[in-house]
Amino acid sequence: MKSITIKGSQRESVGKVATKAVRNAGMVPCVIYGGKTPVHFAAEEKAFKSLVYTPNAHTVVIDLDGKTTNAVLQDIQFHPVSDRINHIDFFQLDDNKEIIMEVPVKVTGTSPGVLLGGVLNLNQRRLKVKALPKNLPDYVEANIAELQMGNKLYVTKLPTPNFKLMHPDNTVVAQVKISRAAMKAAQEAAKAEKGAAKKKK
Asked: Which residues form the Large ribosomal subunit protein bL25 L25 domain (predicted)?
């Protein structure tokens, strides 16, 4: 999985007044959990742009005055009015421990059902995976090449090399629904066949 580096400074004061001062300075207060003790730090709001405002999934290298920590974004809070980032929680990665995180679904292949006029519905745009940090995928591939009209693609049909999908087996990732136009065409074709059969009689 691709990684993003965020540079920040460790915070000594973590009270309400100090946190407000951090936000007023255009910084985001953050915490790293998962280690022996939580680590509080602050970084410029623009530093999180590539991490937060993207459909892609990333791990994070947090650089605090030269000391780096590998982590993943665990929780983010936004201001209810301005929608600016209020606070971010990170979780420290351990190379030997599996972690669960969401990654995007990447659709590949061409569905025969879509070519015949069906409509592709992507039911799951992101999926939860469980893996060691080194095996975290950038995305989960959903190949729709075998989906006929009315077919569904379940999580059990997705390739999962070196990771597990944390969803029930009956979870539908994508499906090809019959469009109104295709349904109307099928109904008209059926009427035409009946009409032709009557004339033969």
From this structure: 6-90
